[in-house]
Design goal:
Layout: H1 3-17, H2 23-33, H3 38-62, H4 67-87, H5 105-110, H6 113-123, H7 128-147, H8 149-188
Helix pairs in contact: 1-6, 1-7, 1-8, 2-8, 3-6, 3-7, 4-6, 4-8
């Protein structure tokens, strides 16, 4: 267990999950369906992330993809997610949800493609136990945000949420560049 790694992975996952930046989406879903089951959504998202952390590589092997290739692909996805966050544009648009059980809050909003790609990508750099602890820390943060969206919305306002989203977008952009440069050489060689 390495505190520095845990903090790094926690920040990476926090930026990718972007639960603060997702507050407008969560509020929209809540307004449509009336209530979001915070506990159920958090447990489902955490379970998806933990399962993918431990069997993600085996799933990739079934398709003949190595971790370096997945890490480079993940870096590209993170790059575009970061651009969305920084520029305030949507490159990928999803269908509007009809219910807020597991879908769309737990998956794909919290444990979506970006998060799962990141988990596989960072396994090449960090110990699994540190990633697991970071997942749990992020699950707690997600739960707190889901449970308190009314208060957060009132405190931060639209401007505050936008600023936080852009800050985490820049962090995510830097992480994507680092992941890309760390793994591209093994594909070229």
């Amino acid at each position: 267990m390495n505190i520095s790694e845990i903090l790094s992975v926690t920040m990476v996952l926090f930026a990718v999950i972007d639960i603060i930046g997702s507050i407008p989406i969560i509020i929209s879903v809540r307004d449509k369906v009336g209530h979001i089951q915070s506990e159920k959504a958090t447990i489902a998202a955490c379970s998806i992330m933990v399962i993918f952390l431990f069997i993600g590589e085996e799933l990739l092997a079934l398709f003949g993809v190595n971790v370096a290739s997945f890490a480079v692909a993940g870096a590209l996805i993170l790059f575009f997610l970061a651009l969305e966050m920084i520029l305030g544009v949507r490159i990928y648009k999803e269908v509007e949800p009809e219910s807020a059980s597991i879908v769309p809050i737990a998956f794909p909003l919290i444990a979506g493609a970006g998060t799962l790609t990141t988990l596989i990508s960072i396994r090449s750099e960090y110990a699994s136990v540190n990633i697991l602890i970071a997942i749990i820390i992020n699950a707690i943060l997600v739960y707190l945000v889901l449970k308190n969206t009314h208060h957060i919305e009132r405190i931060l306002g639209k401007g505050g949420i936008s600023i936080i989203r852009k800050i985490f977008g820049i962090i995510l952009l830097a992480i994507s560049v680092r992941l890309f440069t760390a793994n591209i050489s093994s594909l070229i060689a």
